[in-house]
Amino acid sequence: VAFAELSCCVVMLLSRPYVGFAVSLSLSSKVGSNHSSVGRRVLSLSFGRVCALGVFSLPFRAGSANNNQMASSFHSSISPSPSDGSCRFLTGQERYADQLLTDFAERTGLTSAARPAKRYLWTDSFALCTYIGLYKRSGHQKYLDSARHLVDQVHSVLGRHRIDDDERTGWISGLSEEEGSLHPTIGGLRIGKEKNERKPHEPANERDEWHQDGQYFHYLTKWMRALQILSRVTGDDKYLTWALELAKAADEAFVYGYQGSWGPHQGKKRMYWKMSIDLTRPLVKSMGQHDPLDGYVTAKLLIDASTRGKSSKVPSTMEHVLKDYTDMVAPTQSFVTTDALGIGGLLLDAYTLLQVMLEEDAQHSENWMLKHVVKKILKSVHTSLGMYGSMGELSYDAESRLAFRELGLSIGVHALEGIECLLKEKKWADSDFHREVEQNTFNLSRYIPMADHVESFWMIDEHQQCTTWKDHLDINSVMLAATLVPDGCIDIS
């Protein structure tokens, strides 16, 4: 028996000289245990409360009638899916996401044997989560099959040395072909850049480094997260095992003890930002602002997932991994940023930790560190969004904007909606913690319409013809699909 729940939330925001009009229409279907939480999230936005928060004005520019009609049509059209006779539906917005992924898979050789496999770990992480999101909403097996196929191809390509490497072949880990196929992530995964990594004897060049291969820690954590979500959805623990092996490899390679005899970092653990393909030498020694936090959140997530696996046992190495990142997420470390993508990542981290807390029943424990991190993230996001909003980037023309960074923020805003739902559905035993998170979330709620603005802006065909969209076509289109179907990215199960 299947049923569909239709929810519609219309928000009018007026400000001179812009007019903001955001319409969010979602159709969620439930077939057996698969259901979408989008309708629930949309309804969590009180129409009266959002209108009362008119202090935030979206910088919508009135577009042409054709462009506005095109964008809104994807929000409202509904078509049946699939053709097997079951009562499953995709909204027009979800169909658009499906088409974006279909084109992406064709371009990058995932579904076309005529094209070479072109894998890029960050983009593929979001594609994997979006396939999962579409599967959870529709129950259509093809999305789960695509997710599994993508994982296999990513590991086969990025888990091996480059084909243009004259000196090295096979798995990065150095394992035999058979062993490597069983443990494809144990040596890490390449970024997937177009150029080979810098050789040991070559001098560093900042401009060239952006285009050269290696391994990024924050790309690896995105893939770990995607693998554990796939493990939960499929019930196949091999994906969780691969995530855990990747976590161990990343911790051993990227984290180091600072050996200097002076300075603020004396005797403390630090992280490299970029490592060589084989994880034997740092390519960029500076530490990413949010890398320790990424490590902490991902370690908590994987430990929680391990307790729910078939073995129900946390690998001893993960306790050590968690301690490494806990030591670096110091009370004095700042999370504040004006980068849209970074802000979105912070919101996703906060929602992830709150979900983990509920699964661990942490509200009945004294996990002060976890609570401290959640509160600090939300306060940092409030400061960050205030600074970002004052910069006015969302009022720029398309040629002056980077879609994937804004779409990362949009995904984070959907995570904020998820936090609102958690607060309404669950009550922490620590009433002070619940009240503080609730207040911080309320302070952020005026920014929720940002997601509709960003999504609508980049769905307009004219904006997708600009250079900044075409130059980053794969990552832009996949992250647009991800924010249109955010369930797979933001929910941990």
Give the total of domains: 1
Overall pLDDT, averaged? 83
SS-based class: mainly alpha
Q: Give the biggest sheet.
A: 3 strands, antiparallel
Helix content: 40-55%
Tell me, what is the CATH class? Mainly Alpha
Count of runs of 4 or more consecutive helical residues: 20
Low-confidence stretches at least 5 residues in length (pLDDT < 50)? 1-85
> What's the SSE pattern?
EEEHHHEEHHHHHEHHEEEEHHHHHHHHHH
The total strand number stands at 10
CATH architecture descriptor text: Alpha/alpha barrel
Set down the secondary structure blueprint:
Elements: E1 2-14, E2 19-31, E3 34-35, H1 38-43, H2 47-52, H3 65-76, E4 78-80, E5 89-91, H4 92-107, H5 121-138, H6 141-158, H7 177-182, H8 206-209, E6 215-216, H9 217-234, H10 237-254, E7 255-257, E8 269-271, E9 274-275, E10 282-284, H11 291-307, H12 316-328, H13 340-360, H14 368-391, H15 403-425, H16 431-444, H17 449-459, H18 467-470, H19 473-484, H20 487-490
Antiparallel strand pairs: 1-2, 2-3, 4-5, 6-9, 7-8, 9-10
Helix pairs in contact: 3-4, 4-5, 4-19, 5-6, 5-9, 5-19, 9-10, 9-11, 10-11, 10-12, 11-12, 11-13, 13-14, 13-15, 14-16, 15-16, 15-17, 15-19
What this model shows, in words?
- This protein is mainly alpha-helical.
- The chain has a single domain (94-490), classed as Glycosyltransferase, CATH 1.50.10.20.
- Helices cover 54% and strands 10% of the residues.
- The chain is built from 20 helices and ten strands.
- The protein has a three-stranded antiparallel sheet. It has a three-stranded antiparallel sheet with strand order 6-9-10.
- Helix 10 packs antiparallel against helix 11, helix 10 (237-254) crosses helix 12 and helix 11 runs parallel beside helix 13 (340-360).
- It is globular.
- The two termini are 23 Å apart.
